[in-house]
Amino acid sequence: MPEPLTLNKLSSLLQARFEEGFLTLNDLPKPHTFKDMEKATARIVEAIQNKEKITIIGDYDVDGVTSTTLMRLFFEEIDYPVAWIIPNRFTDGYGLSANIIPRIEDTDLAITVDNGISAVYAAKLCKEKGIDLIITDHHLLPPELPEAYAIIDQKQPECTFPYDEVCGAQIAWYLIASLKNSLNVPIDMKFYMELAAIAIIADMMPLRHINRTMVIAGLQSLSRSNRPAIRAYREYAQKEILSAEDIGFFLGPLLNSAGRMEDASYAVEFLTASNIYDARVRLQRLIDFNEARKATESEITKEALAAADKDASVIVVAGEAWHEGVVGIVAARVARALKKPCIILSKSEEGVLKGSGRSFGSCDLFALVDKTRPLLMKFGGHAAAVGLSLEACNLHSFIDALQEHYETTDDQMALEDPDIVGSLHFNDISFSLTGLLKKFEPYGQGNPVPKFLTRNVQILQAGKMGKEGNHLRFLFEQDGVTHQGVQFKTEAVYEPGMRADIVYTVSENHFRGNTTLQLMVEEVRVSH
Fold this sequence. Notes:
The longest helix is centred in the middle third of the chain and has 32 residues, at about 275-305. The protein is of the alpha/beta class. About 40% of the residues lie in helices and about 20% in strands. It has helices spanning about 5-15, 35-50, 60-75, 120-130, 170-185, 190-200, 210-225, 230-235, 245-260, 265-270, 275-305, 325-340, 365-370, 395-410, 430-440, and strands at about 55, 85, 110-115, 130-135, 150, 315-320, 340-345, 350-360, 380, 385-390, 420-425, 450-465, 470-480, 480-485, 500-510, 515-525. The strands form 3 sheets. A 5-stranded parallel beta sheet has the order 2-1-3-4-5, with helices on both faces.
């Protein structure tokens, strides 16, 4: 049961999330603290001096797209031509794989960004063809590491880089910083930090330690940026200042939509657009991809919810030829709706099930699925999200094994949303509260926006809003104090006079020069 909150208690709770305090850019560790960073840097410098062919190999999500963009922009800035490939989700599969080796046979030096740590077979093929391979990745280490010239991954036990949770684009940023020092070139690392900030947020890295510092610096840079892509996006969003929410909920999904629906190269071409006109055209293409993604995802979510076994501890739903690019988002939506971890699988013509899972509450989904590894063809991910494939004939065994392991695990889910920090009386919702909340921004993974619970409020009004009428505008009252609230994407119907417990976050609404307090409603639990 959440405890009653005071401002002092809330301040202490939020402060406890930052054991190391708030860091500054001066606190960023040096590039050489990464294992193999100096070795990789020396090899790239040698390749530049000897005019060797360098190929960058990225990945199709936002982190992979921004990592590839960072490397491409750096080599353009030092005027050295490189090739780059982002594998296609549908035809190539993930990261450095045997599928793309024929396309890099004339390469002298291949550099992966945001992938490669599991590419044992592809690395072997590179070696056979005389291609030196530098892997930069941030994912968990597999049982067997690929054989490469250098591996930069902070999760290696011999790595002295002090932070475990950083994304692929941050490692690419550090590689650029190392190359800048070795080549002694006058480049501005803050110009690259704005792209790294997009990846940190979109790849759901914890917004603490240096991640918070890089995101704050990156957001400041994005809000002033003359980069055509960012100018085009600010113009489209009608925003002068970009927040972590703008990246996480709007720009990130736009960049992701290209790889989900067709090919992630479109997102790289947008980010590297050389003028505003080109950037606008490329942005429109991403917007079109994103609209198609939303429609597809909405349709599959409805089908998945209808087919889900609501009594299962872990929801697993498989569908015929569901769009592989959206199954991860569908899993997240179903997990939220049913308040349980969820895995969504799509069956291909070859009888293989491929899909994604998203956790809920405190369940470590990676650890759970890892126990079923003998039944899987491919598997990877982390506590909150996994990707996997298996033969259709193993589906029922997989589902049974998952439920069994879940029932015996020590890590049973917290039933109450862990982001609810306490109960709040309407008297305590004030500008002092929002002022305190601002001090701990930006919010995101690892530093979630505090949610509050208020019990026994009366619903005075609940009217539909939005083009499709699928949002609600509320007026709530508790002990004579009223507050406005909004809830997005809901089909629920409430009558005036109903009493309920509500879960919400508090924000300031700026409109025509006026600032008012607004409750962003997450849940309305009607009293019966």
